Amino acid sequence: MAIDVSVPSLKAAYVTHRDTAEDLGSGVSACLLRFYAVECALKAALLRRENKRSTADLEKRDRSHDIRALAIRLKLPRHEIDSLVNCRLKPDGRPVASAELHEAWRYGAALQDEDQKRMEAALLALLTWARKEPGL
């Protein structure tokens, strides 16, 4: 069962996760919070642009953790979307989709170093975008 939240709740969660991640600086916990901050910002922006009030109003495809799909729906710049590609786990290189990153970080599955750095940069870039998005 999904929990539905309003746009103001998403905005508040975005700010809380973003600011807490900034306080942490770097590392897996900061990445996890940045991922959730980005997810909340993208969903709030989508709801605002479509004049909807709650995640209950989102289509099923937009209710997931797929931040790449949300970025595509919002028509973010191509370079932002292209930065959200699959990563690889240490040590075996098994792929992890951007929609599954929160699971890898939450459960302690380490990403390969270059993928970790790339995703940290991608999340920071998306948070920069969110700071400029009207209504966030």
Strand-helix topology:
Elements: H1 7-24, H2 28-49, H3 67-73, H4 78-82, E1 87-88, E2 95-96, H5 101-107, H6 113-132
Antiparallel strand pairs: 1-2
Briefly characterize the structure.
This protein has 136 residues and is mainly α. It has helices at residues 7-24, 28-49, 67-73, 78-82, 101-107, 113-132, and strands at residues 87-88, 95-96.
What does this 3D model show about the protein?
With 136 residues, this protein is mainly alpha-helical. The protein has a single domain (7-132), classed as Up-down Bundle (Four Helix Bundle (Hemerythrin (Met), subunit A)). Helices cover 58% and strands 3% of the residues. Strands 1-2 form a two-stranded antiparallel ribbon. It starts with 6 loop residues before the first helix and ends with a helix.
Distance between the termini: 27 Å
Count of extended strands: 2
Can you name the CATH architecture? Up-down Bundle
Number of separate helices: 6
Uncertain spans: none
At the fold tier of CATH, the topology name is Four Helix Bundle (Hemerythrin (Met), subunit A)
Q: Roughly how many Å is the radius of gyration?
A: 14 Å
Task: Find the structural class using helix and strand composition.
Answer: mainly alpha
Q: How would a crystallographer describe the biggest sheet?
A: 2 strands, antiparallel
Q: Which descriptors apply to this entry?
A:
mainly alpha; two-stranded antiparallel ribbon; 136 residues; Four Helix Bundle (Hemerythrin (Met), subunit A)
